[in-house]
Structure formats: structure tokens, C-alpha cells
Amino acid sequence: MIRAAFVSALLLLTSGAQAGGPQPPCAASVASGYPSPDSAPSVVVWQGKELERSNWHPPSCTGWLADSRSKLIVTLTGSFRFNGPMNALLARVGTISSLRRIQYWSTTDKKWGPLSNDASALTDADPKSRRPDFSAAELGKGADLYYWEDDVRTGSTVYRLRVSENTPERVVISSDNVTPVRRFIFTLFKPGALQSVLIIERVSPGIYGVFVLSRSGEGASMLTSGHDESYVNRAAALYRALAGIKTDQEPPAAP
What we know:
two-stranded antiparallel sheet, mainly beta, 12% helix, 14 strands
């Protein structure tokens, strides 16, 4: 992976204070909408009650139902230097097998460890239909793809990737769990309850902006509450991997 400038490895973490809740860049944004690549990315956490009080509804670009409830939302906004084309970044997104090499900070174990024991692209929603990683060409607009992950905490889950936008200047990709996410005998997330949206934009020559929106929805168990730091650290790990930053670079986003 190409190195990226990252002056401060510590993410700026705040509680949900923006009026109206998360505001993803559903239309092409201006460069001022992202922190500079020499600044730390910003992470904001919203609890479900905050979102209800502000009467927030998911914008259309998320692909989520407008009246669907959110129990927790985490957003990450950042930018990084990269001199390659958008397709080169898409190739990183499509390299599903890299999930087992991405390190994140476990607040439970208080150490760095892999996100996954194993991961693979799939030909369909069957976890046995493993295939090589997706190419950038396969992540075209309208693509509906599947991948499998053996998460270090929750084990085997199948996810769906959907590409709603793909141009040389801007890409929007959503994901959701197709199979339940379980921990031992407990179902933590029913199908479709663990969702995310990734927006990548070229904001100026050699600079790309990234917006990540992750949420636990109505089908999330109460057992998933109180683990905000895990969402933050996983989002930070995936951002670093996309930006070409060492994923276990100190300090962690949420110690």
C-alpha cells in the first residue's frame, strides 16, 4: 500500500453534537467539507435517543429506509493524499482477503489484533462459494456483491456490497449483513441490522476525501449497547487501510 501523510494518528472523537444528526455528502462535496490530509480524521458518535430527539431520518444516498430507526451511528470523515486513480482505491476496497491483515485496537483485550480470522469474496450469498478478491471493474455502478468474514469476535457472517455510484470522481458503496451476526448462542444483529456506507471523493488533484457512516439498526440486540469504542476502532482501521496508513499505528483511536 502507498504511504499517506498522517500528522496525527489520534482521531478527533466527539459525541453527536451536530444539528440534525449525521449529514453524509449525498451530493458532490467541496474540499472544505473534509479535514485536510494533514489533520486528524473526525469521528462522531450518535446514540439512538439523540437521533430521535432531532427527528433524524437516513438520507436517500444511504439506501436505508427513511423511517428506519438507528440505535447507534458512528461517522468518520477524513482525507488523504493519493496520486492514483479512483480505480486503484476501489481495488483496495475489493481486496476482501486483506481484512485478515488489518489490525484494530481491542478495548476488551487492550492490544492490537486482526479484524478477521479469515475473509473471502463470494460468488453469491452462500458462504461456501468462495472466490478470488473483487477487481475494481467488478465494483461498477449497480454491482451487488457478497463476501464472507470470520470475525475474531462474532465468527462467520455473510455481507452484501452494493455500489450506487461509481465515477472517476466519486464512489458510494453500502454494506449490510445478510446472515445473522452471533456471539456464542446470542444473535447480536439480525440480517440487515449492521449497515455501513462508504463515500470516496476526489476533492482536488492528489487528495481524496472519505466519509464512513456505520450504524446498528432496529434488529440489533441490547447486548450490543455500550461498545461504541469498538465501532470507532474498526472504522479507524478500515480508513487507515484504504488510505495506506499502518493500521496498528499508535495511538489507537479509542483506547
